[in-house]
Write a structure and sequence with these properties.
Elements: H1 2-13, H2 16-21, E1 26-28, E2 39-45, E3 52-54, E4 57-70, H3 73-89, E5 98-104, E6 110-115, E7 121-136
Parallel strand pairs: 1-2
Antiparallel strand pairs: 2-4, 3-4, 4-7, 5-7, 6-7
Amino acid sequence: MKSLIAAVLAALENDSSLKSLAPGGVHAGRAPAGAGMPFVVVTYRASARGECDTAGTTVSPARMEFEIFASSASSAADAAQRVLAVFKSSPPLLETGACLSAAAVTDSLRIEAGAGPEGENVWRAAVEIEFLIERPAP
């Protein structure tokens, strides 16, 4: 899945609208200490669906969670909507194989309030996207 993760990170990092909505950057797994808000954290999640072998190719789902941390609910929601928009019209380009589709998991956008390490208000928006990946069969 490294090529998918790399392609997803590249697509987000190269989107100028997301850069302005999340100037703290896009990070795999966790943001570095002291990252400025808002920022995006991308995490790979196991998909509930299994893979399928067809005529020399393997098609498998891969699910990723995108968490946006911001100082306001609207900033977090705006960045989450932009993440969805990045993949809605063009799935990421992979080094090997192809991403056939990218779709938000039904009702996956969540926004909640919390406290940061210094007690400050932090809003977290999270959305999950499932990518359908086709690769040559082993």
